[in-house]
Amino acid sequence: MKKRYLVSGMTCASCSAHVEKAVTALPQVEKAEVSLLTNSVTVTFSGEQAEDDAVIRAVEQAGYGASLPDQAAAKGSISAAAGCKTAGQLSFQMRLWVSFACLIPMMVISMYHMLFMAIGRPTPAFLDSWLHGPENAVNFAFSQFLLLLPILLVNRNYFSGGFRSLWHRAPNMDTLIALGAAAAAGYGVFAIFRIGWGLGHNDFETASRYSQNLYFESAGMILTLITLGKYCESRSRRKTGEAIEKLIGLAPKTAVVLRGGREITVPAEQVAVGDIVVVRPGQIIPADGVVTQGSSAVDESAVTGESIPAEKHAGDSVTGATVNKTGYLQFRAEKVGEDTVLSQIIHLVEEASSSKAPIAKLADKISGVFVPVVMTIALLTAAVWLLLGKGAEFALTSGISVLVISCPCALGLATPVAIMVGTGKGAQNGILIKSAEALETAHLVRTVVLDKTGTVTQGKPRVTDILPAGGFSRQELLQLAASVESRSEHPLAEAVLEAAAADGIPLLEAEEFEAQPGRGVSALVRGKKLLAGNEAMLREASVDTSELQEQALELEKDGKTPLWFASGAHLLGVIGAADVLKPTSERAVRSLQKMGMQVVMLTGDRRQTAEAIRCRLSIDRVVAEVLPQQKESVIRSLQQDGTTVAMIGDGINDAPALSRADVGIAIGAGTDVAIESADIVLMKSDLLDAVAAFQLSRAVIRNIRENLFWAFFYNSLGIPLAAGVFISITGWQLSPMFAAAAMSFSSVCVVANALRLRWFKPSFSEETSAPESGADGEINQFLTEDQEDGRMKKVITVEGMHCEHCKMSVEKALSAVEGVSSAVVDLKKKTATVTLSAPVEDQSLQKAVEQAGFQPGTVTEKRGIFG
Q: What residues does 571 pair with on adjacent strands?
């Protein structure tokens, strides 16, 4: 089992490495992952029971504090951490005010003579009489010491944390700061004693020399600049969790429920499963459930990323944290509290943020040995310069500079900040990444395996062709076909019924309905026995099918299913149906190929159907007629070729393959977020989101590499510069105060670079409208969603549409025009596609749109590819 604990006192990657090592050493712990951003450790236990006391004790023995998250923070550690960081920022602000208030006069006192010389003016007499000359050396030194004391006091946590970690043999960033500042301040106190000794023995030269090398201003500057850097860093880091904080903030505080026939307002957390909840326009839906009464447009953009509101009617499901836009709704609560989609999204993103990518574990290992190595370098630097006769002052300056500039803040922040921003950005776009490891592995994927049904296609058949036999019209065939299929529950029957409803064709009464499994159905319509099924069924009934046999073979060649219809011994016609492609499938496949990935389609469907889709979408390879349990072995064989494989499926019968793949992606899982077998969950049923997930992974890993490069580059250059390696060549020696400024600047730069991911936008291949040629050179005619039979269509642009109600108004207005059999509006493209049963003038369509209250644009003609 897994459990999260809050950890206090961590300041850098070295801290997290020590905490992780201490907890992992416990016998009952399988794995521990420390998050510096959320100040927590997630522990995986080997048994079913958490050993809270043992974990807390191990963390405390490592020199840090640990506790269980309280119930108030149950909504998520990120929100709790965000609250802690807000309080921490107030603490930083107070420390900054005190530090600068004391540092500025200290710097004026220590450097006032140089400042007035620089501006070409004489120093004020009162300052000279109080601070200048050997006789005032004690005043000069002691005034700086008094101003340093408040800075040491408000920043004492560096010393308490740093020396405690050193005592536990786990030195960290605070240890380096504490040693550097303490060495500078200690040398200053020693200098005051030497000044006192010099003045007491009339040795004014000694007093003057030590008064010029106090290092109080260096100690004050180190602590002040480090605190300034920490403050800027905490502000930047707080922004990394904004996406999750916004999700947490979506949950309403109250809900209106029906109890005892009355509406009662209760806290949202008190909504129970089975409660009837009332939601009015503009209110936020407080739980997941099913609509029992009313209809409305619901804005689901916060959860799914879909900008267009979804129409909800009785029987439809609603998701908590979505907004009821227009109508009155009553729904029965089915998932509440931690079981809602929103809570699971937050939980998934938190887990991803606190988990570690392999690249982050490498940085942590380096940080674990980095601090002891730096302390050794600092001691060696001071010793070498002393041996070379440079004096204690030069040796101390070099040693302190090495300690201060080497703090591994940037190294510790390089990976977790980028991962948190990346996973948060994914959540905003309906892409839920379960772990940092999945995020990293996704950028290595070179083969993408797509399930066909529900992933590439709509997962629901539609009528594509209506071919009446001689003596029958298209409308007659569709009416009789829909009537005989009206009592069938087969998906193909539903497709026929939907086509009839779209054309407004009334159904006839069907009697003596009979289903023949694997063959078809029959019923009496207008006293005649109608047959509907495959060709074998009609042949058994002595129906001559030769008239349409050639056309039926063409349908099969194109991957469609021909449905045969007959009245007695007379052939009525053939209706072709197919599981049509999603509108974005072709663009998604091209985008994946453009990213250098091989695209493989895996399906249990017929090879002929699969091959038709392969040609239509230019898919590299297809594996057809495989059973669900065989999909896993196909993934394994691809991996054995040495390639990193991602599997994209609907998460139902694809679970074994999703688990076997290096990256499993569940698509269209908005109502069931917790698909255990997937590494990445796409809230929308859109293949382009998978492309966005791969692009996001590459952007995050690129950002992490940039951060790590600059963190290592900074230390590689900074340590030799601070140690004085280049002094013989350039004459440069880095003072401790400049070292502190450089260290703070490096941390802020790393966080700022990671924040660039907030502006990540996926890019996709341009849409293509022309179908691809098949292997035989002929155009393959597998349909996309906007292609039907050979009827005339017209497309009219419409301005002023914003929501589902606008869409319904335009569709209703256009459908009422004589000669229009159906109208379909695309809100995103701002177009309406009308299917004509008779010629219609463009002006009639434009007038209908205008009368509906919208602005009509140009009208273009369009024919289906089957004529």
A: 566
The C-alpha atoms of residue 350 and residue 244 are separated, in whole angstroms, by 8
Q: Are 603 and 622 in contact (CB under 8 A)?
A: yes
Length of the chain: 867
DSSP for 33-66, please give it. EEETTTTEEEEEESSSS--HHHHHHHHHHTT-EE
For the stretch 736-788, pLDDT in tens is 667 666 766 777 787 788 888 888 888 886 654 433 333 333 223 333 334 44
Residue type, 260: G
- The residue type of 327 is G
Virtual torsion, Cα 10, 14, 18, 19, nearest 10 deg: 30
Nearest to 353 by CA among 233, 430, 242: 242
Of 148, 123, 267, 285, whose CA–CA distance to 219 is shortest? 148
- Angstrom distance (rounded) from CA 115 to CA 107: 10
d(CA 353, CA 160) in angstroms, rounded, equals 29
Top-confidence residue, 224 or 364: 224
Checking if the pLDDT of 353 tops 60, the result is no
Q: What is the pLDDT of residue 246?
A: 62
For 380, residues 6+ apart whose C-beta sits below 8 A from its C-beta are none
CA pair distance 402, 378, nearest whole angstrom: 6
Dihedral, CA atoms, 401, 407, 410, 412, nearest 10 degrees? 170
Provide the terminal-to-terminal Cα distance of the chain, rounded to the nearest Å.
61
**Are 135 and 205 a contacting pair, CB within 8 Å?**
no
Indicate if the alpha-carbon torsion angle 621, 626, 627, 629 is positive or negative: negative
In our burial notation (b when 16+ CB lie closer than 10 A, e otherwise), range 706-739 reads bbbebbeebbeebbebbbbeebeeeeebbbbbbb
pTM for this prediction: 0.60
Q: Alpha-carbon distance 857 to 796, whole Å?
A: 6
State the pLDDT at residue 83: 45
Q: Please state, in angstroms and as integers, the Cα–Cα distance from residue 623 to each residue in 340, 450, 557, 595, following that order.
A: 37, 10, 17, 22
Q: What is the pLDDT, as a whole number, of residue 147?
A: 93
Q: What is the mean pLDDT of the chain?
A: 79
* Distance between CA atoms of residues 503 and 479, nearest Å: 10
The partner residues of 40 in beta bridges, in order of sequence, read 6, 35
Q: HSE-up of 552 (CA within 13 Å, CB side)? A: 19
Q: What is the dihedral of CA 261, 264, 268, 272, to 10 degrees?
A: -30
Q: Beta partners for 478?
A: none
Q: Which of 700, 696, 702, 655 is nearest to 675 (CA)?
A: 655
- Cβ(323)–Cβ(362) under 8 Å? no
pLDDT in tens, 471-499: 888 889 999 999 999 888 777 888 899 88
Higher pLDDT among residues 369 and 681, named by residue:
681
| HSE (side-chain half, CA atoms, 13 Å) at 777 | 0
Residue 780 CA to residue 610 CA, distance in Å, equals 12
Identify which of 687, 684, 678, 685 has the alpha carbon closest to the alpha carbon of residue 657.
678
What are the catalytic residues? 451
Residue type, 790: G
**What does the alpha-carbon distance between residue 664 and residue 813 come to, in Å, rounded to a whole number?**
45
- Compute the chain's Rg from CA coordinates: 36
Closest CA to 399 of 381, 414, 424: 381
Map 736-767 to HEC letters. HHHHHHHHHHHHHHHHHHHHHHHHCCCCCCCC
Which H helix or E strand runs over 380?
helix 358-387
Q: What is the DSSP string of 197-258?
A: HHHHTT-HHHHHHHHT---HHHHHHHHHHHHHHHHHHHHHHHHHTHHHHHHHHHS-SEEEEE
